[in-house]
Amino acid sequence: MSPRIKFCGFTREVDIDAALELRVDYLGLILVRESPRGLDWARARQLRQHIGQQARVVLLTRNASSCELLEWSDAIKPDLLQFHGDEDPALCAQIGLPWWKAVPMGALSDAQAVQGYLDRYHGAERWLFDSHGQQSQGGRGVAFDWSRLHGMAAPYVLAGGLKPETVAGAIQQLRPWAVDVASGIEQAPGIKDPVRMRAFVDAVRQT
Ligand SMILES: O=C(O)c1ccccc1NCC(=O)[C@H](O)[C@H](O)COP(=O)(O)O
């Protein structure tokens, strides 16, 4: 079976419509102020309503407060949360939604450090392995050394620099539970490219 697909960082209805036509499983909305794909909560709510039940909506945050998380979840009603900072695991669980934790492979120098990080966030529904460092954010189109995930037994989401041209190779090497992409399907940050979205989906579904 091919991995599930998550496209992240939508800012426009037209791009969402193209992704829905491709039957992408998860669509990500980013509520991080510094992100070039960042939305305010009112815009995120509009886009969430536009998606409806046609895909699962992932709300991505980074070091948001407990108050913000409660308010945003209540207003936007995502299906799940994705945490990209160094949030306290208790805070991640507090909202009561399933949650994914981005694992900053750029900040974790060896297998022992990775394992320590996974132990800390053991309550996550999925770990999402990404290339960023502890203090930097994701969504930069940079890959990490995939061989670091050889032998990972738990189902996980692979992210960081995936592209239509590289995703099949990554899947053949690792067989992740899902693949996640932002930059690799864009014309510019937050502006998706319909041709690259289709090429990515085709590449994944041919594996
Ligand atoms: O995309 C952002 O601007 C961003 C900002 C802050 C935290 C996370 C962010 N993006 C995460 C993602 O879009 C993906 O989950 C992942 O990092 C893959 O991104 P890419 O390497 O661009 O494919």
From TrEMBL:
> Which protein are we looking at?
N-(5'-phosphoribosyl)anthranilate isomerase
Q: Name one GO biological process term.
A: L-tryptophan biosynthetic process
Single annotated GO MF: phosphoribosylanthranilate isomerase activity
Where are its TM segments located?
Answer: none
**Catalysed reaction per UniProt?**
N-(5-phospho-beta-D-ribosyl)anthranilate = 1-(2-carboxyphenylamino)-1-deoxy-D-ribulose 5-phosphate
Pathway noted in the entry: Amino-acid biosynthesis; L-tryptophan biosynthesis; L-tryptophan from chorismate: step 3/5
Organism encoding this protein: Ahniella affigens
Enzyme Commission code: 5.3.1.24
Similarity section? Belongs to the TrpF family.
Enzyme class of the recorded protein, top EC level: isomerase
Tell me which residues make up the N-(5'phosphoribosyl) anthranilate isomerase (PRAI) domain: 6-202
Keywords, sorted A to Z: Amino-acid biosynthesis, Aromatic amino acid biosynthesis, Isomerase, Tryptophan biosynthesis
